[in-house]
Amino acid sequence: MKTFHIEVTNESEEELITKILENLKQKGMIDFTEQHQDSPNSKAVPASEEQVQEIIDEAELGPYYSEKEAKNILNL
What we know:
The structure is a single chain. It contains 3 helices and no strands. It is mainly α. The chain has 2 domains: 1-37, no CATH class; 44-76, no CATH class.
């Protein structure tokens, strides 16, 4: 599973993009929720250890660096 952040740059297209996302959600292809910048629920959440390992694996740093070094390189 991948998580994406989508920022609508043109407010006039926001309704169209929302409809596209809702259509994909209805088809069971994606799940999405709207988050507001000023919302208290939009606080950063630390990555789980599993997510950290996945990030290190994706960056292909594992064979070359220790876990601690890889975390420092990736600012985790």
